[in-house]
Amino acid sequence: MKRRTSLPCLVACLLVAAAFAQHVEAQRRRGGNYRVCGDPTVRCGAGVPFQPYDMPFRLPETAVIWESEQFYAVVLKSMRVKEDWDECERHVSEDDRLEAQRLFPRNKVFASRCQEPGTLFYTNTAPGQRFMAVYAGRTRAEAERTLERVRATGKYPGANLRRMRVGFNGT
Predict the structure, then answer these.
(1) Contact 72, 137 (CB under 8 A)
(2) Distance between CA atoms of 136 and 147, rounded to whole angstroms?
(3) C-alpha distance from residue 72 to each of 1, 4, 11, 46, 104 (Å)
(4) 3-state secondary structure the chain
């Protein structure tokens, strides 16, 4: 009689242990939600080099797949492409990004590119979209103030807020 009741308990314990191990692995992969470096005038201390158009965030040199903390960005421009792997040459130009960076010297202006291994990706963005955005802060209040500053320039009439993460896929 004892064996019959201990078998379901053993199975339940194994299922709980497996779920816990899966949760721990997911957290390790995400990297504990590392902080983004939203102010380009401050040294980031990231463990890997980033491209000038990337939103840098702190992650270890041995990173494989990691994501940052959530943050707000104001999307300044976007464009459609057929597929992410198609039309890799189509993206917001570096000249446009640098022009926007001059307008917001203490907020990182970043732009998405074709996703390939070893490059960054951004969550909460539509597939087939490339964009340029400016870091708007960690809170909704900061983001609203940044959006007001963007609108005051008159240069980006379709600007909109987005909450996102930046991730690194080193596989």
Answers:
(1) yes
(2) 7
(3) 59, 54, 43, 20, 15
(4) CHHHHHHHHHHHHHHHHHHHHHHHHHHHHHCCCECECCCCCCCCCCCCCCCCCCCCECCCCCCCEEEECCEEEEEEEEEECCCCCCCCCCCCCHHHHHHHHHHCCCCCEEECCCCCCCEEEECCCCCCEEEEEEEEECCHHHHHHHHHHHHHHCCCCCCEEEEECEEEECC
Give Cα separations from 120 to 64, 82, 139, 156, 171 (angstroms): 11, 19, 23, 24, 11
Number of neighbours of residue 130 by Cβ within 10 angstroms: 20
pLDDT per position as a tens digit, 94-145: 999 999 999 999 999 999 998 777 788 999 998 888 999 999 999 999 999 9
**Residue 26, amino acid:** A
Q: How many residues does the chain have?
A: 171
pTM score, whole prediction: 0.77
Lookup: tokens for 169? 């896929």
Q: Which of 133, 4, 9, 11 is nearest to 72 (CA)?
A: 133
Query: What is the token pair recorded at 18?
Result: 């497996």
